[in-house]
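Instructor's aside before we start: the two examples that follow are unrelated to each other. I chose them only because their records fit on one page, so don't look for a connection. First example below.
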Amino acid sequence: MASSFFTKTPSLSAIFSIYTSLSAFTILFRTLLHQIIPVQIRDFIISKFTDYFSAYFNSNFTFIIEEQCDYVTNQTFRAAQVYLPTLLSRISTGSLLVSSSNLKNPMAKPKFGIPVKAKIIDEFQGIRLEWTLFSAKDNTSYMSKQKRYFHLTCKKEFRDKIMSDYFAYIAKSSVKILTQRDNLNIHTYIPEHKTWEPAIFQHHTTFETLAMEPELKNTLIRDLDAFSNGKDFFKTVGRAWKRGYLLYGPPGTGKSSLVAAIANHMNYSIYDLQLQSVKDDAMLRQILTLTENRSILLIEDLDCSSGADARKEDKEDDENQTKKKKNNPKVPLPQNVTLSGLLNFVDGLWSSCVEERIIIFTTNHKEKLDPALLRPGRMDVHILMDYCTPFVFKKLTALYLGIEEHDMFEPIEKMLLAVKATPAEITEQLMVSKNPDVTLKGLIEFLESKKIG
């Protein structure tokens, strides 16, 4: 039986001959395949076979969460970006991103973030999840930039659970984190990179320290609180969840301080937009759709947005004020930005792109603005930031000198009713000395010189 088996076994030369024939056939087949089938079709077939076998043998499922979605920030990416830093103790790779942008306090505790390709493990209702941040060059636009995205990996059987419950959970968690955040940011737009760059915002002005008439201050606080709690109301009446404020008045009357007080009260970051850097309406839409929920869009000095034109008009005001008032010229918007394009983000269709947003315009010359900006419904609240009043003076004196009464208060208050002095001018005089007698005497001399001038 054994001898029969060995007699049927092919010889080494036969095996080598068969192998040579198969190799030749394989080479011939591959050559014909490459000559007959185009490269695109071959790549497509190979990719389909690869996807099929990887899906069949792989038990994991991966969600890809890109930073940008339909020309706006992907809110799921944003939620993950806020939520994941709370899980840094579960990072499985041996690295952390460390940053500190607090210029006022170099000794401040740094912030820790997620490096690219670092893996973070989360657990949700007993399901193990793995997050990874990736970054790659995006060459789809005319200007290449970094494209960031998260991979969220779980077992296939939990895919539906993650889709229905987990994403809603991190969205809710991120809102809670943002509401309780310690640091706010002020963003400036960088046209070259098409991104908003943040910096730590640490303006210490609050409504408690803001020198403003109490009736106006209380009205504004009630309005802000009603807006913050008005999600259901805005949805019911079919309006975008946004609020517009126009701050107007002479320079130095505290418009910037009021913006800071609003940001600190609402715990909102600020997007400071310089209209001079905007080329056209299309760019304006792109810029504003990149802002985030729960934020302030600030457009300062709207009457000076055209730069040289505005300065020229101011000069003409001085030379021929009566004629200017009669003609009442309007300051144009810069370059190719149209009024309709701007209004679209105030109360048009594009105003609904971001929720819970406050839009603030500031101007030194309300009379120069186009009437279309001032119509009812455009800016919900118009706030006059006026010259210093006796109440504002006493508030500033309490803050800077630590006193609430003084013999010189009465003559100073009478002078303030007759002389136009801005809170900024009064503050500058109050900072001359810590001695109330010296400071208040100098303030009286300053007001007298303004009265004479």
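Example two begins here.
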Amino acid sequence: MRRGWLITRRGPPRGYAAGMKAIAFRRYGGPEVLEPMELPEPKVGPDWVLIRAKAASVNPVDWKVREGGLDALIPAHFPVVPGWDVAGVVERVGPAVTGLRPGEEVVAYNRQDHLQWGTYAELVAAPLRTVAPAPSAATWEQAGALPLAGLTAYQALVERLEVRAGETVLVHAASGGVGRMAVQIARVLGAEVIGTAGGRNHERLRELGATPVTYGDGLVDRVRALRPDGVDAVLDLAGGRALEDSPEVVRDRFRITSVVDPGVLDMGGQYLFVRPDREHLTRLAEWVDEGHLQIDVGATLPLAEAAEAQRVQEAGEVQGKVVLTI
């Protein structure tokens, strides 16, 4: 195998201590509430997989969860281990799991129905529906950065917007983690892409196949200069003024999808909250291996520095994904 070793056991190794190191928080708050903990090994249900983590991506939702921003939607059981992205090696599988065995390299978008057992940990228990084979062409850090960003872009473009070859898609915040995935996936689908971003990110967007435009005042005029009849679809990853301008540049308001502002529904568009999907994640990994998708990692930090990693991600101090190595 590319990165590691293959084992065949379905139970824990001899001498294994039922515990793990993790980063967790006991209450909502700022980065200071994150602390290293020794926690019990998470339980593995009949159709679950236990993953020995190698890398976990840091996403904006992680610090929003830490601050209590999802408390009205998802119940929390403290202490909470944050994180929804992970790449690693299957440690063992539940008795009902088929198609995966210990030793295989996998990625997962491990969003569950409650907050407790996340991915900032040595061991991650994930439902089989969230797990897919890892791309063999990616490093652990790149693989760990794929699930949430890739699935968000894929589901928005394929399921919500139904982008087709020959169309033009406007992606707001195209230089972010989801945005870069969206640019590339839209290109795989055969679409042309206009991406909003600050000037320092324009060259990277060109490399990925998009036509960059600067966001802010005058955006409508800049987009209309490129597509006088309007674009076919808009993927909003920014909200605010960018979303407000979107109806003026798209032909059909229903083909505006936002992943940050449910207010898009009031203007006739669609809202997306990404969901785990094993088939979609498998397809994304295949596109990485086929050379269609590049995963930009901007910074890597050890698990013990998770608080700093979240701070860096929130501040937007790096270009590309922030990843924890475990």
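The CA atoms of residues 48 and 127 lie 4 Å apart.
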